[in-house]
Amino acid sequence: MDNENSNKEFKVLNLTIEKFSLTYGLFLILWGIVISFISDSSSATSYIPSFLGLPLIIFSFLAIKFPSRKKLFMHIVVIFGLIIFLGGLDVIRSLISGYAFENIWADSSKTMMLLTGLYFLVQCVRSFIFARKKK
What we know:
Number of domains: 1
Helix content: over 70%
Strand order of the largest sheet: 1-2
Distance between the termini: 25 Å
Number of strands: 2
Structural class: mainly alpha
Low-confidence stretches: none
Largest sheet: 2 strands, antiparallel
Shape: elongated
Order of helices and strands: EEHHHHH
């Protein structure tokens, strides 16, 4: 469960927001690789979650490594989180056009990005609110 453990640092699933972002980035990279392998895809688009996970890992790592620049790096992380969520919204186009899940792998990836991207954004906003109240 999400919590603000002992009012010192915001935590999601018992991880700091930086480590949660790092973990989410790793998940996205693995998702893209696994889905591309399972679907036997030769398209670079099947790696879109991986491409978006990489900057999450980089900027989350930088936020951990350089705490004085954490605010900047985590704001960049949130921008990529927004891009992930917005990319996932493309599944709605498939639903509206009546072609939803004709390509199960692509629409599964979009759905995953939509749902996890939304959850990630909500946690980031909660973290920012927590940090603001802490000042």
